[in-house]
User: What shape does this take?
Amino acid sequence: MRRKDEAEWTEVVGNSLREAEEEALPSGGWRRLEREADIRFSLSAQARKRRWIGYAAAAASVLICVSIGVQVLRMNHNVMNNGVVSVSGAAAGGSEEGTGTLSVPGPSSHIGRSSRDRAASAGLRAAAGHPPGSGNDAEDILSAGEYLSRTAGAGFPDAKTAPCGMPGTTAADAFGIRKRSDGLYAGRAGRELLAELQSVEWAGMPSPAPFGAHSGGAPDRETSGKSGVSRYRTDDYDGLFADAAPAVRKRRGAAGVFVAGIIAGAGSGRSPEGPSYSAVLVEKKQVVHISDAYESYSFEHKQPLSFGLTFRKEFGYGLSLETGLNYTLLRSDVGVTGKVREIRQQLHLVGVPLRVDWQFLHAGRFSMYVGAGGMAEKCVSARFGAEKMTERRVLWSLSGVVGAQYLLGRSVGLYFEPSVTRYLTHTSLRTAYTDSAAALDLRIGLRFNY
Amino acid sequence: MNGTTGMDEPTLAERCRQGDNTARRMLYELYAGRLLSICKRYTGDRAAAEDLLHDTFIKAYGAIGKFVYRGKGSLRAWLERIAVNTSVEYLRSRARMRLSPLDERRPLPDYDEPSGEEAVQVPVAELMRMVGELPAGYRTVFNLFCVEGFSHREIARMLGINEKSSSSQLTRAKAALAAKIKEYLEKNRA
Assistant: This one.
């Protein structure tokens, strides 16, 4: 009968199909599955522990940097003692009362001069060039140059016999700053200058030469025309002032802002990690399917944009440590097979960089530096179409920079900083970073020195 | 391969739930072949089927906590259900099935049906190919009705169509399939 036949053939076909089993499984199928399952279902305490270790390491490194900074700051403050202004480096053993050791930066010490030293030097210059009592703060400050020329002429044989080195004499006395009846030194300006002078950098100073070797009148002066900063030859003064050990290091810093658009980095290469991202998304009524086919989608990565804040701490010898807070936006237009309209993928990353810079060139307002460091970033928000994605991993990267800075004013520097960044860990989603071996970045920013 | 492992179904499921990677792998190796076949049957396209296989397992690993062992074969049935749902969901998206009402207006075909003995001669791989060649709408209804064993009512609910549509889709599917089988037998009889 027809109906019986009908039932039979469909039943037969149905049974055959029900028992069918594909023999050839997709190659690498388990590997992809395992990886994704691991990411998605990392409910094991192990994964959680790893994350906490990462946070702890980051916190520890921040703490270390902060404590280094605090130590250096503390070293500085030990200098001031009851209004007796004296400077002593750590190596000198820091006997404070009655010793005055000061240094004036020499031509070799051109490193990271901030507005404060320039002010100090200018003060000295003004002092040397102008007679005392000109009716402003210079009055208190002054006589440095005068004193120096006086003592230079007097031909003291060595440091110890220079007035500055005499017990009971303070540097304030040496500079002719008036001592008030209450024992404090006159004038805010006076204290300020002394404070500045004592914090002036020693880096690159030649070793003290016997005073007697340089006789003769007024100190030589080199004036660099553009900046108007004069540089004294320290050879003349080392005998007077120098202490064998370097004085306190300069503690300057800068805060800044920057913007950056990464030049290269967009590409269509395969991501080295081969993300196996599989999710079913909902974009209004349509279901957009990210799957292993994600790899085969066409990506057009837009230029990543970033901006942020920087904080820099200078440490002497031209070295400085810079950190800050970065925000980066990664956008891509993704062509999904079968879909006419492209899907917009967006990742928002927030990161904390840490970098060591070395300034190797300084000429007037212009300076250049190189630096190397790394950054820890986290994707705080990601979107594929309308669906929110999560990226759990912390992204680590290394970067090298070359920077050029031009001082616009006394304390504002404009800088250009091309850099190369290489990411050590990648996001599951494909971005301009995952699809290129290294990202070239040009950063423009401002630094405000303090 | 089924039933030849050291682990029985409840243990395997429990270990997967705990996140045991070995258990997950075993689950994959035991059932991937069958589930891939299901996905292929619905999509008619190997690449899409592999994607759906992947998704099926991800869903399975995620939902294994909800699996309740009800006797031998229940794990397989549970997994197969996930595969079917995933496939249907995929087909429903992007309006792949085009179950348009226009289609309904055409008169139901009259077709020459193969017999049971004839049908048995067609190898499974060929049947898979034939089913894959069917238009998506016919294919889905055919699979759900004849292979998975759902009723038209259930199919209607799953696909968001009415029962009459489901029924007519099935008839058209059978007609097309019967023609293919006949064609195949003709070719291979000689």
Q: What stands out?
A: Chain B touches chain A through 50 residues (CB under 8 Å). The domain at 101-189 of chain B is CATH 1.10.10.10 (Arc Repressor Mutant, subunit A). Chain B has a mean pLDDT of 87. Residues 4 and 129 of chain B are 30 Å apart (CA to CA).
